[in-house]
Amino acid sequence: MSDRDAMSPVSERAHILDVLVHRIGKDERVAKPHDWFAAAAFAVRDHIIDRWMESTRATHAAGSKRVYYLSLEFLIGRLMRDAISNLGLEEELTTALSAQGIDLADIEECEPDAALGNGGLGRLAACFMESLATLDIPAYGYGIRYVNGMFRQRIDDGWQTELPETWLEHGNPWEFKRRESAYRIGFGGEVEGDADGEVVWKPGEEVEAMAVDTPVVGWRGKRVNTLRLWTARAVDSLRLDAFNAGDFAGALAGQVRADTLVRVLYPADSNPAGQELRLRQEYFFSSASIQDIVRRHVQYHGDPRTLPDKVAIQLNDTHPAVSVAEMMRLLIDEHKLDFNEAWEITRATFSYTNHTLLPEALESWPLPLFERLLPRHMQLVFAINAKLLREARNSAHMDGDAVSAISLIDEGGERRIRMANLAFAGSHSVNGVAALHTDLMKTTVFKDLHKLYPDRINNKTNGVTPRRWLQQCNPGLTGLIKEAIGDAFLDDTEKLADLNALADDAAVGEKIAAVKRANKVALAQHLKSLMGVRLDPDAMFDVQVKRIHEYKRQLLNLIETVALYHQIATHPERDWTPRVKIFGGKAASSYHNAKLIIKLANDIAKRVNSDPSVSGLLKVVFVPNYNVSLAERIMPAADLSEQISTAGMEASGTGNMKFALNGALTIGTLDGANIEIKDHVGDDNIVIFGLTADEVAQKREQGYNPREVIEGSPELRQAVAAIASGVFSPGDPGRYADLMGGLYDHDWFMVAADYDSYAAAQRAVDARWSDQAAWRASAIRNIANVGWFSSDRTIGEYARDIWKVM
Hints:
Layout: H1 9-24, H2 33-62, E1 66-70, H3 80-87, H4 90-98, H5 104-108, H6 120-134, E2 139-144, E3 152-156, E4 159-163, E5 176-187, E6 190-193, E7 199-202, E8 205-217, E9 224-234, H7 240-244, H8 248-251, H9 253-261, H10 272-301, H11 307-310, E10 311-316, H12 322-334, H13 339-349, E11 350-353, E12 364-366, H14 367-373, H15 375-393, H16 400-406, E13 409-410, E14 416-418, H17 419-425, E15 429-432, H18 435-443, H19 447-452, E16 457-459, H20 466-472, H21 475-485, H22 506-531, E17 540-545, H23 554-570, E18 579-584, H24 592-609, E19 618-623, H25 628-634, E20 640-643, H26 655-661, E21 665-668, H27 674-681, E22 687-688, H28 693-702, H29 706-711, H30 714-725, H31 737-745, H32 751-770, H33 772-785, H34 791-803
Parallel strand pairs: 1-2, 1-10, 2-9, 10-11, 11-15, 15-16, 17-18, 17-20, 18-19, 20-21, 21-22
Antiparallel strand pairs: 3-4, 5-8, 6-7, 8-9, 12-14, 13-14
C-alpha cells in the first residue's frame, strides 16, 4: 500500500486543491463544477496509478498468462463513481469535497458517458473487464477509441434523430496516450512471392494505430488492468507538397481517412461505402491488437511458439474474427512459421463468444471487398478453408450440404466470407452466453461445425458486476441488505441468498418498498427535469429499456398498451392497477421498422398522456438517449422488467439480471437467461408467458397464419386496427399501415402468436400488484437468488475452463 492509499480526508482535500491549482489552473474561489470534477478525477487517478503499476510489475515478475479481450464495444459509462467505490475512497472524497462546499454526487454528473458502445454486448465487455480485475486476473481489453461513438439520440416530434456524441469535447481524465505503442495497419495493395516461397504483402495504403490506455479498477483495488483503445492517425498527416500547391483538402485527405476509422461506432452499412468502413474498422483494431499482443509476448517470452502458454485471446462476437487471419499472417510472414504450426498455435490461443442466432447478425463480407482491402488475408482464409473442408470431407458425418455449410465461403448467390465460421474454426473454444442459446447454437447456426468439432461448444451464462449494478446504483438497497444480513455479499454476491430467510418478514418488506419508492421518486424527478413529464411514484413502473429491435418486441408491449388504454377508457369503473410504461433505447440508423416503433411509442404516449379518461391510471414515456447513466437511475426504480423477446432469439440478456438484482419482477418468455433466472428465483417469483423456442420453430416449419390469430383475438384485432387506421397518427393516417400489415402477412417475430398469452400475463401482474405484501416477498426473493448472475462467476468459469488462468 502506498502512502497515498492511507490518506485522511484532510490530506485528500489538500491533494484535490493541489490538483485544482497545478493541473487545472484554477483558484478554488472561482472554480466551476467541471473544474472540481476534473480535480477530483485526477486526484482519484493518482491513487489508481499506484495500484496499476503494482499490478503490472507483479504480472511481469510472475510471468503470468494474460487474457486479452477483443471487443468492438466497451460500454463503460461514467468511471468516477466506479473507481471511488472500488478503491474504498467514498468517505475521504465526500468529506474532503464537503469541506469546500462541494457535493460529490453533483460533480459526478459532470462526467459524460463514454460513447464506446451501444447495448448489452458492450456493457457485458465492461462488466467483464471489472470482474477480471476483481478476480486478480492479468488482462487487457482491446477496442477502438471512438471520437463520437454511438450517436446521441434526440427525439424530434416523436422521431429518433441521430446526433454526434461529443463525449471527448472537454478531454478525458482517465486516459493515457501511449505514443510508443503504435503500429502500421495496411489496406489494399498486392501480395508478392519470391522463388523461395517468401510472401510479402505490400499495402497500397497505411494508417497508424496508437494506443490510448484506461485503467480498470477491480473491487477493493486488488488489481488494476488496462483497457487499451486504438486511435488512428495518418502516416503523413499533412502533405506539404499538396498544401503548397493550393490543394488544401487533398493535403489533409490522409488524416481525414484515418479519422473516419475512429469516428463512429457502427456506421450505417446499407451502402457500399459504409460496409467498407465497417470492415476497415474491424481490421484496424484487430490488427493493432494482435500486433501488440505478439510484440509483448515476444518481448517477454521470446518464442511465438509459446503463445498458447502465456496468451488467451477472447473474441467478443464476430467483429474481431479477422484477428484469426491476422495472427496467421504475423506468424507465417513475420515470424516464418509454417502454415500448419501457425494454425495450431492460433487455434490454441483464440476462443470465441457467440452472441446471436440471427443470421443477419453473423457478419459476412463480400469476397471482392475483402480481397481488395485485405489481399494477404484472403489468401490465408482460402488456405484455412481448404484445410477445414478437407477435414470435413474426411469425416463420416459430413455430406455435401454439411461441407458447404461449414465452408468459410458462402457460395449461395454473392460469394461472401463467413466471419462466424472463421472465428469458430480458428478457436479451441466456442461459447454461448445462456444455456438455451448454447443448445440452439448446436442445432442451428453451428449445427455442422458442431458435428465436426463436438467438444468445442460450451456454455458460459452471462453475468453483471454487482458493484455497479447494486452497490453503486442502489446505495439505499445495499445499505438495507447490509443491515439485514451483514456485508459478506459485497465480496461474494451469492451470499445474497441469506435474504431468503427474510422474504416474508413484513418489516423487511416495508423497508425494501420504502427504498424502491425513494428510487422511483428520484427517477420521476429526473424525468420531469429531462422531459417535463410528471410520474406518480405510487404507480407500477413497468420498464422496457434496451436496443430497439423487432425481435426484442417493443411492438408487442406497445400493442398491449393500446389495448389496455382502450379497456381503461371504456371501463373506468374497474379496479385498474396504475401503471407507468417506460420505454428507452436506440434504433440502428438504417433500421426503418425500429425507428418507426420509436415513433409509435411517442405517438401512443402523446395520445394516452393527454386523455383525462385514463389520468392517474396509465402513462407512457419514451426516455431519449438511453445509456449507462440512465440505466443506473431506471433499474433501481423499476417494479416490472419486460424481457419479452421471441423465444430462441435473445442470446442471454443482462438487463434482466440487473432488474432482478434491484428487486424488479420479470415478465418474460422462456428465452435467453430468463430460463436460468426462473430456475434461480422460482416459478412463483417470475411471470412467464408465450411460445417456447421449440414451439416457435415448429410454427414456422408447419406454416403459421397470423391473420387467423389476429382475427380470432378481439382485443388484439382492435388494437392493431386502431394503430393501422391512424388513431395515434391523425396527421398521417397511413403511417403504421405497413407495420401493422406486416403482422398480418408474416409476423416472423410471433407478436400475434404470443399476444393473448402476454395480455393474460399482464393481468396476472395486476393481480399480484394488488397484494403488496406478496409482491414485496417476490421482490426480495429475486434479489436473494440472482447473486449467481454475477460477472465474477462468469469470468471465473472462463478463467478455469477456457483460458486456464485459475
